[in-house]
């Protein structure tokens, strides 16, 4: 699965995550790290949706942002 929304939509989704979920982004990144070791993007999105009840758009934005930040640490 790939990211299917614009950078602006991605930023807007991320900005709303704390108010919609009650958790800050770093908490979601920690949950992804502590969760199952899924390699595929869509498996991680599905896990957030199923395990934590997130909407698809928010789960996708969280996983995408976590991947961007991981890549920045590795290659930045």
UniProtKB/TrEMBL annotation:
InterPro entries, per database record: DUF4287
Highest taxon of source: Bacteria
Name this polypeptide is given: DUF4287 domain-containing protein
Organism: Jiangella aurantiaca
Any Pfam family matching the protein: DUF4287
């Amino acid at each position: 699965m790939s990211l299917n929304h614009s950078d602006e939509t991605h930023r807007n989704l991320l900005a709303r995550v704390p108010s919609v979920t009650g958790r800050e982004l770093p908490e979601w990144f920690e949950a992804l790290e502590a969760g199952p070791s899924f390699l595929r993007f869509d498996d991680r999105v599905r896990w957030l949706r199923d395990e934590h009840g997130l909407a698809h758009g928010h789960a996708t934005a969280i996983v995408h942002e976590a991947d961007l930040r991981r890549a920045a640490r590795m290659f930045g």
